[in-house]
Amino acid sequence: MSRSFSSRDDRRGSWARFQDAVVFLFTVGTGASALGGWTAGTAQVVLRVVAGIAAIYMIYLLGTYYRLSRENDLVSAEQLIRDVEDVVTRQSAPNEESVQVKIIIGCSDEADRVQEEVQVRPNPQVVNRIIRPIMPYHWRRPGHLRDIEFTCTVDESDDGPVLVRPRPMRNREYLQIWLIFTPTLTKPTVWRFQYRPRGLWRELRETGHDRLVRHDTMPSDGRSPMVDFRITFVFVDSTFKPRVSERNGYGTTSGPTRSSTGEWVVDWHDPSPQGRRYEWVIARTPVIGAN
Questions:
Q1: What percent of the chain has pLDDT over 90?
Q2: How much of the chain is in helix, strand and coil states, percent to nearest 5?
Q3: What does the alpha-carbon distance between residue 276 and residue 248 come to, in Å, rounded to a whole number?
Q4: At what angle do helices 40-71 and 3-36 cross, to 10 degrees?
Q5: For 182-220, how does the pLDDT look when each residue is reduced to its tens digit (9 = 90+)?
Q6: Which residues in the chain land under pLDDT 50?
Q7: What's the 3-state SS for 149-193?
Q8: Looking at residue 37, what is its pLDDT?
Q9: CA dist 43 → 32, 40, 205, 265 (Å)
Q10: Which residues of 9-26 are buried (b: 16+ CB within 10 A; e: fewer)?
Q11: Rounded to two decimals, what is the model's pTM?
Q12: DSSP state of 145
């Protein structure tokens, strides 16, 4: 049953209770005055008290009626988030963004990290942006962005120093962060953010395989602002050799290769990421002879 039906029933019930209460109070008040043999002055005082109580109760019911009436016009938090996401996505469509993601697969839950860098060419400006951090399946909704050690900065450009105000937008399924840039970005620049999604690659460490899904949301005008997309997978545990592939055949994969510090590195690149749903399959196997 819709909320409007239940609210209307509540208002009708409240008005009926008010009528019953007023009748009861005045009946008791007048009856007590008559049976008690009170003087006219005392009876008037009693009736005034009864009238005062009835007035206070009436104010309470009017407040409840007003609140219930307004609730019918409120939207849910999930609907508000979807509306904000739609507006911000459509506003960002004319811009051009080259996205570079660095995913660090650590040896423990605490060591998993994500770093993202966005080179943006505003057309004509970037006021805000919505990002969706990569979180593990078992994630708990963070109460604050500091719980995932989220930070975001903007390189200084012709616009001068830029302040970023991150606003978490939580719903039941995932976390989004609304980034508001002050002043507005009008010149090419780079903004970057990083965070610690603890346990993101726990399943890979425990079972030897996992997957990563990302959907490049296509605005209503049919053009994504992302014009270049790169991911670098860094596997810290060198005793396991990784394999990475994109299930749909999008982009190209190179590696794995060893870095100068011993980690395994896999690079993936898609030069034309327009509204695609990506799914990377990640696996690892022990290196023969590794200690």
A1: 40
A2: 35, 35, 30
A3: 10
A4: 180
A5: 888 999 999 999 999 999 999 999 999 999 999 876 665
A6: 1-15, 18, 22-23, 26, 28, 30, 32-33, 35
A7: CCEEEECCECCECCEEEEEEEECCCCEEEEEEEEEEECCCEEEEE
A8: 54
A9: 9, 5, 83, 91
A10: eeeeebeeebeeebeebe
A11: 0.69
A12: G
Which residues are within 8 A (CB) of 33 and not within 5 positions of it... i.e. 6 or more apart? 42, 43, 46, 47
CB atoms within 10 A of CB 153: 13
Beta strands 96-105 and 226-235 are: parallel
Distance, in Å, from the CA atom of 201 to the CA atom of 139, rounded to the nearest integer, reads 12
What is the predicted pLDDT for the residue at 276? Answer: 86
Gap between the Cα atoms of 133 and 147, Å rounded: 13
Q: What are phi and psi of 111, to 5 degrees?
A: -90, -5
Tokens representing 199 are 């346990």
DSSP 49-114: HHHHHHHHHHHHHHHHHHHHHHHTT---HHHHHHHHHHHHHHHHTTSEEEEEEEEEE-SSGGG-EE
Tell me the two tokens of residue 184: 């507005």
Tokens of 200: 């993101």
- SS3 category, 10: helix
How far apart CA 108 and CA 206 sit, in angstroms, is 11
Q: pLDDT tens-digit profile of 16-35?
A: 554 555 445 545 454 544 54
